Amino acid sequence: MQILVIGMLDEREEGLALLKEKIQARRHEAVIADVSIGTGALAPALAADITPAEIAAAGGSSIETVRGMLAKERDKAISTMAEGMAKRAVELYAAGELQGVIAVAGMTGTFLSLTVMRALPFGLPKVLISSVAAMPAYAGKFADYFGVRDITVMHTVTDTVGMNSLVRTLMINGAGAICGMVESYEPLARSDKPLVAMTEFGFCDKGAGYVRAEIKDNYNVVSFHATGLGDRAVEDLVGQGLFDAFVDLVPANYGEYLLGGNRASAPDRLEAACRLGVPYILSPCGFDMLSCGPIERKDKNDPLWASRKLAERKLFVQDAMRVQARTSAEEMAMVATAVAAKLNKHTKPKQVKFVIPSKGFSSLSVEGGQLHAPEIDKVFADTLRECLSPEIEIITVDAHINTPEFGKAVADALTRIASRNG
Fold first, then answer.
1. In whole angstroms, how far apart are CA 70 and each of 77, 78, 212?
2. Dihedral of alpha carbons 274, 278, 281, 286, sign
3. 2-184 in CATH: which number?
4. In angstroms, what CA-CA distances link 104 with 8, 13, 25, 30, 113?
5. Which CATH architecture has domain 195-421?
6. Which of 35, 136, 229, 288 has the lowest CB atom count within 10 Å?
7. 316 membership: H or E segment, kind and range
């Protein structure tokens, strides 16, 4: 069994050598993967177990070609090495030889290593020792990785080239971290109850609580905060086949992606369950609003506010940072059409149920709520019925989302799907 150690030997040989020494002192096999993409002018004394040439070949190229890209196509060079290294890591894992992975990196190595770690499954120990992971300018890019994978990050404060007392401490701590994780590792346990993923957020918290109370005796529920990153994570984990069903109370991040809101996730939202044929229950929570804070954008000719004329709409100003604008009838129809197109691709359409609470999609659109507009909510429901496959059942509940009636309807839908599977 092996711990994969990723780094550039032509820049960080001393640190990688110490990392290997400390890992092997704990009686683990350290496999050095050299992802150097420089000219090769510096010949390290430490031999790589996986060479740059092997990694480039796995990425569909050659190390000479990769080095030739550096001047004008650096991103392509990095991508080639990242894909090759990820392929090799996945092969080691599939063969049952990989216990964990640790990387020591600057900017290039960080993005390269994150690609590798994103390719490995949830639970496998992953440690990134990086001098750049805390950079605010790259927060959004890093979120693409940290948002969907359980990666432990050690921010180095200093650079990790050469060897000094600070770098030595970082390598010793890193070795201790990955070895400790590997030694304590337990495979993801499968419980005696089916595992259900559920999205929720504050505007349907009571409804989510009612659903959880109804199904907790028969299912283990894992909740995800539907604010963008949580949506990416749940899509990723459902796509890995970790869940037996998906209760997507707040699929609205796909609407935010289409309309330009703050909670936008990714264009592949709603696809994982459909692709794998996972039982899928949805509600329209969140489609009744568009996250558009902070409020100062209103007076700064912000493109989203200006193009959608948000200042003319009903608004819920939670605080200076969090602002929700009421979605229009036209937007609701567009979103419903797009959602139906996604769901119609589910490989087992009879295992999809869409539960619509007719008296309010969220706490904001109930009677008396700041975004109450039942005629607009009806546009979503009517458009969904027109566009959705007749094999997919729409269940209408004569109540709003934060009621026991809604919770029971979702639970009953899940029970019926499970009974059909049985």
1. 6, 9, 53
2. negative
3. 3.40.50.12020
4. 8, 10, 19, 14, 9
5. 3-Layer(aba) Sandwich (3.40)
6. 136
7. strand 315-317
> 206: which 2 tokens?
């009571």
Residue length of the chain: 422
Ranges for all domains in the chain classified under CATH 3.40.50.12030: 195-421
What residues does CATH 3.40.50.12020 cover in the chain? 2-184
Tell me the pLDDT of the chain (422 aa) as tens digits: 799 999 999 989 999 999 999 999 999 999 999 999 876 556 788 999 999 999 999 999 999 999 988 888 888 999 999 999 999 999 999 999 999 999 999 999 999 999 999 999 989 999 999 999 888 877 778 877 887 789 999 999 999 999 999 999 999 999 999 999 999 998 877 778 999 999 999 999 999 999 999 999 999 999 999 988 899 899 999 999 999 999 999 999 999 999 999 987 779 999 999 999 999 999 999 999 999 999 999 999 999 999 999 999 999 999 989 999 999 999 999 999 999 999 999 999 999 999 999 999 999 999 999 999 999 999 999 999 999 999 999 999 999 999 999 999 999 999 999 877 54
Residue 305, judged by CB atoms within 10 A of its CB (0-12, 13-18, 19+), counts as: buried
Both tokens of 68, joined, read 């030739």
Give the global pTM: 0.81
Instruction: Name the H helices within 5-102.
Output: 9-25, 52-58, 63-69, 74-94
Contact 187, 123 (CB under 8 A): yes
